[in-house]
Amino acid sequence: MRPNRRAFLAGAGASAIGAASLGGVGAALNSFQAHAADVSGYKALVCVFLLGGLDNHDTLFPYDQSSYDELANIRASLFAQYSGMAGGSTRDRGRLLKLNPDNAAAFGSREFALPEELSGIHGLFEQGDAAVVANVGPLIQPLTATEFENESVPTPARLFSHNDQQSTWMSSAPEGAQFGWGGRFADAALASGANTTPDFTTITALGNELFLTGEDVIPYQVGFGGEAAMLDLLEFFDGNRSTPEGEQAYQLLRAHFESSSFTSSNLIERDIAAANAASLSTNASYNEALANAIPLATPFPDTFLGVQLSAIARTISIRNSLFVSRQVFFVAIGGFDTHSAQATDIPTLQQEIDGGVTAFFQAMQELGVASDVTLFTASDFGRTLAINGDGTDHGWGAHHFVVGEAVQGKNIYGDPPPSNFGHAQDAGGGRLIPGVSVEQFAEPLGRWFGLTDAELAVALPNLSNFTAPSLTFV
Fold first, then answer.
1. Of 162, 52, 99, 145, nearest to 401 (Cα)?
2. N or C: at which end does the chain have fewer Cβ atoms within 10 angstroms?
3. Parallel, antiparallel, or unpaired: how do β-strands 112-114 and 383-387 relate?
4. By C-alpha distance, which of 234, 189, 35 is closest to 200?
5. Is 14 helix (H, G, I), strand (E, B) or coil?
6. Are 398 and 432 in contact (CB under 8 A)?
7. What is the phi-psi region of residue 319: left when phi exceeds 0, alpha when psi lies from -120 to 50, beta otherwise?
């Protein structure tokens, strides 16, 4: 098979240089047709991807006594390990942080809670600035346990595989997909004149990610300090130009990055050279804007997620200098594949999520854009309710957070399945068949972002198979 030139450039060249309602959807599946995305004002989406599969059963807890007792009985050995931790168990019912959703009546006598490691997100939920979307995951069409067992309804390819389900979450297709729905959202906004160039439309602090790649946008990578990474070496030589040798080294390196003397008949090589040259001026523009920005007063935790979200916050602070009105961001942390030592690992990871997300929301308030920036979590999959001794195995559906002042918060959207086995959403071992598809989760995010029905149908190819969005905005 011949390599795809643009895919090669996006995957190799861009990363190497460190830059870079549902009606009427049928006909729209073939093209954007009229690009009519609403790009007034400023809006940004921030995806926080939890690589490995965060255990949903160890995040959103049943809190009413009978449901809690069911969970504690099924997970008795895991709860015992929590009890043996220094400071005692944060999974004891008396230490859980009860949620008081505005839609509590929808769940009858059932109640829910978060662990104290997520106290900041709990606070955001209670003040109406965060929501929970329950049991989200990849689907092709609605599915029950009976249909899954009988294989009478199509299901996503290569379920329970890390790489494939990460890709399916990001693009509606397994590993090998080219475009993510974040990139497709950005394509639509760009086609409607949201930004002067595509350069700063999709941005990652981690690497060149599928989620952010569209037909017209390629992820731009910022360093953990906020500045673009490519110029670090060039700036080092720029600071050592006081001697003829230093000046010569600087000019040679700059000529290399600019590809000023490069010639080739190879189309891909020419593309990469052109991208190198363009990224030099792009990175210089980014760094100049950042150098003139007022530093944020909000402190971020010194964690892997914290430094990424800090870099994203600083990038949002220079949005006017970058001449953008729509942006999509991607950050990620790993460690959630807890086949063992779950009681040791998950609390620390949850604290990292909580500290980073809470600081980011506070920074958006400081910038005056807390209603213009929506953050959401995503993950490969959830985990099994059944335990394997001191951990859990790969699941499917999982619960996720959506944070921002624009969100109709203090609500639990969807229906958290019961903490037992054999119900209509149990694929076996408490592995949840999603009740909310990724498309249903993404659709209200895209609509808030400004996309039309036709544009949403292009970005989310299975959307027409589902009838209702998962989330509402104020």
1. 99
2. N
3. unpaired
4. 189
5. helix
6. yes
7. alpha
pLDDT of residue 8: 32
Q: What is the full DSSP assignment across 66-86? A: HHHHHHHHHTHHHHHHHHTST
* Cβ-based neighbour number of residue 41 at 10 Å: 11
State residue 209's pLDDT score: 84
Counting beta carbons within 10 angstroms of the beta carbon of residue 302, is it exposed (0 to 12), middle (13 to 18) or buried (19 or more)? exposed
Task: Concatenate the DSSP letters of all residues of 302-330 into one string.
Answer: SSHHHHHHHHHHHHHHTTTTTT-SEEEEE
pLDDT at 284: 78
- What separation in angstroms does the CA of 203 have from each of 128, 263, 280, 324, 429? 28, 30, 16, 12, 38
Please identify which residue in the block is written with the tokens 């029905």.
Answer: 453
pLDDT, tens digit, for every residue of 65-124?
Answer: 999 999 999 999 999 999 999 999 999 999 999 999 999 999 999 999 999 999 999 999
Dihedral sign, Cα of residue 68, residue 71, residue 76, residue 78: negative
Helix (H, G, I), strand (E, B) or coil at 393: strand
Taking a C-beta distance cutoff of 8 angstroms, is the pair 192, 449 a contact? no
Task: Decide: helix, strand or coil at residue 173.
Answer: coil
| Whole-number pLDDT of residue 287 | 86
Enumerate residue ranges in the chain where pLDDT < 70. 1-36, 208, 227-241, 250, 253-263, 267-281
Contact 435, 143 (CB under 8 A): no
pLDDT tens-digit readout, 339-354: 999 999 999 999 999 9
CA 224/CA 58 separation, integer angstroms: 30
Q: Which helix (DSSP H) or strand (DSSP E) does residue 120 occupy?
A: helix 119-126
Q: What element of type H or E holds 378? A: strand 373-379
Query: What is the predicted pLDDT for the residue at 268?
Result: 66
pLDDT for res 37: 87
